[in-house]
Amino acid sequence: MFPRWHIFLGAIFTALIWIFIPTMPVLYLSLIFLSSFLIDFDHYANAVMKNKSPSLKKAFTYHRKLRQQEKIDLAEGIKKKSDFHLFHTVEFHAVVGLLGLLWSGFFFIFIGMIFHSLLDLSSLLFTGVFHRREYFFFNWARKGFKQN
Ligand SMILES: [Zn+2]
């Protein structure tokens, strides 16, 4: 799902929480909103590493080319995994959720991340590319170690 959609839907989600819980501190609302799209920073980090450039424009171009290649692959029946996205793994969500026991702010970051990931999952399912993502850090790590 494109970042602009995450920002838009994250704003609506945060506004709904604010309407239903008007006493919620602005800090917590801000954490929910920001985490609902900043979790995609791992996509940008991947592009920076592949492009060897911090350019946001090049990062968008990089991902556009990946999408185009994926369409070609799918048409030929090839189902490839995408780059690994650390912030989108189940384990990373669990760590942030557990950190919420230490500081409640992490709990609200966790809420924003869960909202983001549910949108991602429904988008991946709906567009027929659910296979693309590695959902578990330990799966990725184990495969990485096998290759070495
Ligand atoms: Zn995402």
Number of helices: 7
Q: What is the residue-averaged pLDDT? A: 93
Q: How does the major sheet shape up?
A: none
Total number of strands: 0
Distance between the termini: 32 Å
What portion of residues belong to β-strands? under 5%
Bound small molecules, by name, code or SMILES, are: zinc ion
Q: How many domains?
A: 1
- Helix-strand topology string: HHHHHHH
Share of helical residues: over 70%
Structure class: mainly alpha
Radius of gyration: 17 Å
Residue ranges: pLDDT <50 for 5 or more in a row?
none
Shape: globular
Q: What report would you give on this structure?
A:
By secondary structure, the protein is mostly helical. It has one domain. The protein is built from seven helices and no strands. The structure holds zinc ion. The site of zinc ion (ZN) has 5 residues, from helix 6.
Topology readout:
Blueprint: H1 3-20, H2 26-38, H3 41-51, H4 56-75, H5 90-99, H6 104-126, H7 137-147
Zinc ion (ZN) binds at residues 39-40, 88, 116, 120.
Please supply descriptive tags for the structure shown above.
single chain; 148 residues; mainly alpha; 72% helix; binds zinc ion
Compose a concise summary of this entry.
With about 150 residues, the protein is mainly α.
